[in-house]
Amino acid sequence: MEALFIMVAKHSGTSQEIKALDAYITLRRAGNTIAAKLNRDIIGHKLTAGQFGILEALFHLGPLSQQTLAKKILSSKGNITMIIDNLEKQTLVKRTASPDDRRTTIIQLTPTGKKMIGKIIPGHLKKIISMMSALTLTEMTELKRLCKKVGLSNQLEKTL
Amino acid sequence: MEALFIMVAKHSGTSQEIKALDAYITLRRAGNTIAAKLNRDIIGHKLTAGQFGILEALFHLGPLSQQTLAKKILSSKGNITMIIDNLEKQTLVKRTASPDDRRTTIIQLTPTGKKMIGKIIPGHLKKIISMMSALTLTEMTELKRLCKKVGLSNQLEKTL
DNA sequence: TTGAAACGGTTCAATATTAAACTATATTGT
DNA sequence: ACAATATAGTTTAATATTGAACCGTTTCAA
Q1: A88 and A114 fall within a common domain
Q2: What digits encode the pLDDT tens for the residues B67-108?
Q3: Is there a contact between B26 and A147 if contact means CB atoms under 8 Å apart?
Q4: Nearest chain A CA: its distance from B88 CA (Å)
């Protein structure tokens, strides 16, 4: 479920407040629209969002501990255990003990897993590019600047 | 879990492609940062996002059928049944039969529910406004225009 | 050095979520 | 009129998600 926008539409306040709410709702809608399309893509490949996130992180960053994965995809430790369990059942990843720290398990892509995610990512990127191409180059740059300004001043942490 | 951005950062392509991906990732991050804060607010009130969405819709739009609620908060019918069950247990909403159609149940806020959501919403709006106020008025307007342009050309459906 | 605290992972209970099958009711086309 | 179809909601099975309790390991500070 995604945040609702009815309250925003119904709000009456100063012109500045309305503009702020209005900008927020539009920002969220644009993002959600795109994210929904990407998600359909992921589901089409028989993966959940969490599974996709893990595979992608491993693909781009190499083997990682579960702890690190939890931070990367912003999910609870318990959930990571479950996602890895399921990915392991499909032999897309495998657990290995860390040589440095006996508490830690390192997650690696199997060849199957690597092949699979490697095939999905290009199409995924193409979708994003195609959707953002509603904007001109100048507009993309400006959108980025504005979003950064909003994001930075409200930041919680910098993943990635 | 939220879409991962590592792939975007790692992508090498034409300058236009990189700008498109870059704009997307920043857009998503800004939105997610704000949404995460709002979500913490909701959890702080002992509500799930779905419960909050339902209460808010009922507050602003009056009694609605479960079908309508499902569309409003973009959730499955089955899930709505469950959310309403839980809200009913806490006596925040109640089910009533529709006089027009015997298949339909109409969901209404109880006085308790109305009081509760009515108390939460103003703070919620204030949070959004405060976070968006990183931007000037002109910037808000421009952000809205750009997001609308992206959103519209990729639209699935118009809720609300 | 050793006891306390922190950390990485797993497990558990509770709730959420979806998709599909199902029940009951309503609508529609012939 | 009535069979086919569509709709509203519930139920079920499978999986996801979180937070808390827990276990073993590591770190740190007195």
Answers
A1: yes
A2: 999 999 889 999 999 999 999 999 999 999 999 999 999 999
A3: yes
A4: 19
User: Which residue among B30, B74, B147 places its CB closest to the CB of A2?
Assistant: B74
Whether ipTM tops 0.85, in short, is no
Nucleotides of D under 7 A from a protein CB: 7-13, 15-21, 24-27
Distance of C1' in C20 from CA in B74, Å:
18
CA angle B116, B117, B118 (to 5 degrees): 90
In terms of domains, do A60 and A114 share one?
yes
A35 touches strand D (CB under 7 A): no
Q: Which CATH number characterizes residue A82's domain? A: 1.10.10.10
What are the tens digits of pLDDT across the range B28-43? 888 888 888 888 888 8
Residue nearest to nucleotide C12 (CA to C1'): A78
Please indicate, yes or no, whether residues A54 and A30 belong to a single structural domain of this protein. Answer: no
DSSP-assigned letter for residue B100: S
Q: Would you call B74 helix, strand, or coil by DSSP?
A: coil
Q: Are residues B28 and B89 in the same domain?
A: no
A83 and A52 within one domain: yes
Separation between the CA of B65 and the C1’ of D1 (whole angstroms): 31
Asked if residue A63 and residue A31 are part of one domain, the reply reads no
Same domain, B100 and B60: yes
Q: How far is CA B70 from CA B55, B76, B98, B159, in A?
A: 12, 6, 17, 11
Amino acid at A110: T
